[in-house]
Amino acid sequence: MSALLEIAGVETFYGNIQALRGVDVSVEKGEIVTLIGANGAGKSTLLMTLCGSPQARSGQITFDGVDITRKPTFEIIRMGIAQSPEGRRIFARMTVMENLMMGGTTADPAHFDADLEKVFTLFPRLKERQGQRGGTLSGGEQQMLAIGRALMSRPRLLLLDEPSLGLAPLVVKQIFEAIKQINQEEGMSILLVEQNAFHALRLADRGYVLVNGAITLAGTGRELLARPEVRAAYLEGGH
Amino acid sequence: MEYFVQQLINGVTLGSIYGLIAIGYTMVYGIIGMINFAHGDVFMIGAFIALISLLILGSLGLTFIPLALLIVLIVSMLLSSVYGWTVERVAYRPLRGSFRLAPLISAIGMSIFLQNYVQIAQGARVKPIQPVVNGGIVVMESPNFVVTLSYMQILIVLTTLALMAGFSYLIAKTALGRQQRACEQDRRMASLLGINVDRTISLTFVMGAALASVAGMMFVLYYGVIDFFIGFLAGVKAFTAAVLGGIGSMPGAMLGGLLIGLIETFWSAYFTIEYKDVAAFSILVLVLIFLPTGLLGKPEIEKV
Fold first, then answer.
1. What is the value of ipTM here, to two decimals?
2. In terms of domain of life, where is this protein from (chain B) (predicted)?
3. Shortest Cα distance from B181 to chain A (angstroms)?
C-alpha cells in the first residue's frame, strides 16, 4: 500500500536560492510525522511547497496516489489537505466564527455544525470568544483558532507549522494534547513541523531531521530522541 | 431655503451615481491593492450599452417604461461585467506579482484603449437621448422658486440604496463576501483554505463593473447625453470619493460619493459652476495630505 503523502526528491528555490535539496518524506494514513530542524532549515518551505506555493522545481509530491506537484494551491487543498501555517495567519479583521467559517470553505456545509462542535469541544476557549475579532486574541488563542480553522475542512492530512512557537509552556502542553487527541480520535494523519523537538518527537510516530534543506536523519520518534546528534543539536539546554 | 433644498436633492442624486462608481474602485483596491483607472471607462461603456439597448427596445416597440428599464438594467449589468472581467484578465492578471506600478500603467493604457474603442465604434459626437422618465413631485413652493423632486431622481436614489444594501449584505453575510474579505486580508492564507483567489478577484471586478454600469445607465437617463469621454471625469471624481471615504472601505465609498456629489452641487450653486471640478479635486488633495486613510478607512496597523 502506498503512503497517504509521498514527497520524493523535492527541490524548491526562492529565486536563485535553493531552499530544499532533494527532500524525501512520507506520511502514512493515521500517522503523526514530525519534521524538526533549526530556523531556516526549510521546514516551512516544505509545507508550503507541498501546498503548491511555491511549486517544487523538481521532484514529485503524491497525495493519495495523485501527483499534486504542479497543481494550484486551492486544488491541492480541496483534495483534503489543511494547513495551520507559520505565523498562524488568522484573519485579524474577521471574528473567530468567521475565521472558522473560512476554514470550512471546501467542506460540505451539511457538516458545519458538527465540525464546529468538535472544534469547540477541543478548544472551549474559542467558543467563549466566537464573536471576537481574530486580531484581538492572545497568541495561544490564535494558535487554537489556526488549528481549529484547519480542522473545519475535515482534512485527511493536517499540516501544522510550529504550533508551539512563542507560547507559554502550559499552553504548549494544551496544544500538543489537542494534536494527540485529533490524531487518536479522528485517526487524522498529521505532519508536524516543530522547533520544540522534545515535545514533537515524543508525540510523533516518526520523525525527520531537516538541516539546510536536506533530510539528515529519519526514524521513529523514540529513536530520534535517543540519537546523540539530535540531543546535542536540538534538545540540550532544556526544553 | 427653497434653492438650498433643491440643491440638496440634486447633490444627493449626483452623489448616488458617484457612490456606485466609487464602490468599484474601493473593492478592487481592497482586494489587490491597485487603482483600476479603467473603471471610469467601464462606467462609460455601461452608459453606452444602456443607451443602445434602450434604443433597440424602443425600435422593437416596447413602450412599457418600467419593463424596458429593467431589461436595460440587466443587459447593461451583464455586458459591462464581461468588460470588467476581461479588463482584469487581459490587463492585470498577467502582471500580478510584478512591481506595484506595472498594473497601474496597464490600467491607464486600458482606460485609453476603451475610450478610443468607443470613439471609433460609436463616433466622437455626443449622443443625446429623449427623456425616458418624466415628471416629478413638487416638494416646496414659493412665489419665485419651485422645488421639484423628479421621478428620475427618486429612481436613482432608490436604486442606489437597494444596490448598496444588497452588496453590503453580500459582503458581510455570504460565503462569497467572506471569501472576498479573506482575500483582501491575506491572499496566501485564503488560497491555503481552498479559495480560488484568481476567481474571487475576477468576481470583484465583475461586481464593480456591474455597479458602475448601473451608474452609467442612471447617468444617461438623468443627463440625457453621453460621449466616449464621460468616464474620465466621472471616474476621477468617484476615485476622489473613494479616497475621501477611505479607500478599501465600502461604507466609505458610499459616504464619499455622497459628499463629493453634495460639495460639487453646492459649489456650482453658490460659487461658480466653472470651478466645480476644482472643488472636488481640492478635496482629493486635502484628504491625501491631512487624512490619508479617509473618513472611514482602516488604519494600517492592526494588532496581529
1. 0.92
2. Bacteria
3. 8
